[in-house]
Known about the structure:
Elements: E1 10-15, E2 21-26, E3 38-43, E4 50-52, E5 67-72, E6 78-83, E7 98-103, E8 110-111, E9 129-136, E10 144-153, E11 163-171
Antiparallel strand pairs: 1-2, 2-3, 3-4, 5-6, 6-7, 7-8, 9-10, 10-11
Amino acid sequence: WDTLPVGTWQETNDWWNDDLSILITATSVATGSDYSMDICKVVLTDPTTLIRLTQTSGVGAEPGYWDEHAKISPDGAVVSYISSNPVEIVDEADLAAELWLMDADGSNQRQVTFFNTAGMPSYRGPGGWLCKEMSWDQSPPAGSIRLVMGVRHKSVGVTGTTVEIVTFVMPLRA
């Protein structure tokens, strides 16, 4: 990975369904913070080119969101990922993350969960809820996706905290 034009942090997330590309999380701008990461696509035939699907480096006018754990849908049309949006992360203690979806080219970004937003039906209470690893179900109902993901409070391991498995069935297109 020494050929990638990234900052100090990178993590492989998923193989694109064409087997020619991968999704990674990276501090894609050299001066960006390790708490402000982008979801990027790397085409393996040209591994020196990084295609930024999210623009959240915290550099210049870009917000500094924590975007991570990207997965491509079975049909290659949608990317699921977690994001701290709308909270800019300065320190890991600030971290709370929600499930987001975007089209495979990075457009049409939309928030799916609202575990950290008071007043929303899915609100889990204060303290920072994290959407974590997720996977796409290969056999959803026609015209929908089923996404299975883990949700945990950031203090998991503390007495009274749990990890939940949440399943979403939703229309594939927004």
